[in-house]
Structures are given as C-alpha cells and as structure tokens.
Amino acid sequence: MSENVKESVRALLSEIVDYAGLFPPSQLSMPEAVINYATYRNSNYSWMLGRFVVPVARLGEFLESAEDFISMDVGRNWHLSVLSGEDLYETIRQIEDFNAANAPRLICDTLEVRASTESKIENTSNALPSNVKGYFEIPNDERLPDLIAALAINGQRAKIRTGGVTPEEFPQVKAIIRFIRTCLAANVPFKATAGLHHPLRCFKPLTYAANAPEGMMNGFLNLFLATAFARYGFKPALLEEILEDEFEESYDFDETGVTWRGEHFLNNSQLARTREQNIISFGSCSFEEPIADLQEIGLL
What kind of fold does domain 2-295 have according to CATH? Predict the structure, then answer.
C-alpha cells in the first residue's frame, strides 16, 4: 500500500507522471482519459500524478468531459500541460482565455512546444504569460548546446523525447547523457516524454497492438537516477551503465536514500533537489503500467 512507501521512493517519484492518455500508444478518447485521470487523483498513488497533457485544440473538449469531475473535486485544483498548435500566438490566446474563465480550479500552467532555432525559443518566451512555463522539445544534435543556452537565457525548460512506437524513435544512451549533462551545465530543468512506461530498461513490445514491433525501452528509474548522479558528479561512463542497467537488484531504496550497485549513494535531499531543479516529470500514456511495474519490483 502507498502508506508504506519508503521516503526515498517518495522523493524520487512524487508528481513524476504527466498523464498523456490521449496520445499513442494508448490513444484514448477524451472521456476515457479524463475519467482515468480523475480516478488516479483519488487513488492511493495520487502523489505520483502530475499534470493532464492535452493539445490546445482540444481544451474545449477537455472542459466538457472534465466539468463534473472538477466540480466534485473541491479544494484541489487541476493543472494542465498544453501542447502548442502550429500558430503559437493563437495557442497562447486560447490558453489565456481558458485560464481567465477557469482558474484557479483548472489552469494551464505549462506549454509544450517544439523549437529548432534560438529565435523560436526567444519569440515564444517573450509571448508566454508570466504564469505559464514553457517546455521546449529541441533537436538532440549539434544544435543542442546553443538551444539549451537560449533556454537558459530566457528562463525556460527543455523536453527530451525518449522513445516512440518504433525502435528508430528511441535515442541512443550517449545522446541521452549528452542532453542531461548539457541541461545540468546550463541549469535548465527538463521533462521527458515517450517510451518510459517501465521503471527499468527492458526489451518489450512498443505498442499495445497485436504483433507490435519490439525494442529496447528506456526506464524512468534509470533516467531519473542517471540525472541525479550526473548532478552530483558522476562521469559519463558510469551514467551509461546506470541508463543501461536492467536489474532491479542494482537499486536499493531505504528510508534515507538510494544505493546503486552497493556503493553509489544519493540521499533523500539530493533526490528531491534533482526533481525540483533538474528533471521535473515524464509524460506517459499509462499511469497504471508504471505503478504495476513498481509494485512488481517492490518499490510500491
């Protein structure tokens, strides 16, 4: 039961999952996704739940489906992470109108947008309302240092895509490490999305369809702990080992922190600071699958 969860697990996993049930591979209808989110908010594991992820074009549809649940959820505000449409300024206008009509009980307070140039980051940052934080999905290639620098200058956040529905969409471990270390060096917080249903790295079907392609999936424990160890000085070779570690026996969580492979330790304060300042959350179309896996390995 959730009450017995160790403090180190809570420090690492609090508000970790932004629920993206509308997106592949789940791709639920709006009513289904909203009912799920409302249910998770009232479950034993609500402390692990972050924002509801929704495209800006579907905000009206979301409100229609969520109205009754929100009215019953007295005293607890719902927070949305909105995916930008093609027209950034129209997206921001819709967010401002939505917040004006529905805040504080329901508020869009993060915007997720793609950017491949420094000017896109700067223009978007200048247009963002002060109460909306931007997460920028940027190319993880030779442009990365300049784009991360632009995010730092403009006080914004990064987003890394860690998978997809085909093997080709999963980045190499070295590319993930480069992204983590570049963000840390610039003090740019980030979130992750896609391919992180499971806590530990594993070879699994990539969708829920029959005969789905299989591939090596990144684990969210691997990613979040690699970020924490990188923050506290681990070298890339060791980070690579953490990201590739598929064995639950490697991770020992107790009331004071987590030990990896019996010798490398992070305390609860270090885990909490990493979550607050560096890796904020990950988007997942499933909330139940991560929980089931964490139960299976004895962390919940």
Answer: TIM Barrel (3.20.20)
